[in-house]
Amino acid sequence: MPELPIKADVSESANELIKELALPSARQVGEALGNVFGLFNTLTLPIKFGNEYAKRNFAKYAEKLENIADEKIKQVDPEIAIPIMEKLSYTSNEDLANVFANLLANASNKDKVDLIHPGFIQKLNSLAPDEARLLEYFKANQGDISYIIFKAVNSNDESYRELSLKLTGIEKILNLTPKQVIVHLENLVSLSILKDNNGLFRTNEEIYNKLKTEYSNYEEKYQNEVLNKKYMPMDTLDIDKSFYSITSLGRIFIEACTNE
User: pLDDT tens digit string along 40-92?
Assistant: First the structure.
């Protein structure tokens, strides 16, 4: 006869596993996830949640629950809990594990449950580790992400050639390359977390002046190349200004997947 699943009120073996994975908040974890543990086969529990990554990731989740008042803890819907628990059971990258643990912790909080949508799990599955770090950056630095682009322009017909990527300055904060930053930002655009407002620019010129100063070596290099007729018939150096903005959905997603 096949092994029966654990009862929804959490069997002794599941409760022991919860204690092993999250000693400080075993009771809170049991209250939030006990009904979900009851849906797993008892034979699979040690395999799924007894490895090094699972222990570390569930300990991270348990620490987040400690900051939630007992009366605010709620049972997490299986549709949300199960795919996140599966992810936490094997994710080795700490940045990704952290955003999944944040989403699960917020789903365990009565005050945050309105933020949670099952589609957010799919979005998290599409994130690279550095994009998980970007969510934390956006949380701490709420606002638009300004950028500049150096381009060579033909003064006769205004045709142009872009010489640089969209330069945001973020790479120097997160220790990335400009190319990595653009790949990550464009992925977030594809996930409807960001919007590229190319063609529009912010009225605060000081923001762009700071970027121009930050990339003054780029400007000097491109100016010399244009003067030396490298990009003919383009004969003038120009700088485009624009910005990425966080969408309404993106703001909810970031709040759901980050912690205070």
Answer: 655 566 566 778 898 899 889 988 998 889 899 999 999 999 999 999 989 99
Residue 43 and residue 9: Cα distance in Å, rounded?
17
- For the chain, which domains are there? 12-125 (no CATH), 138-252 (3.30.110)
Quote the pTM value: 0.85
Question: Quick one: pLDDT band at residue 184, thresholds 50, 70, 90?
Answer: very high
Contact 112, 72 (CB under 8 A): no
Tell me the two tokens of residue 82. Answer: 């199960």
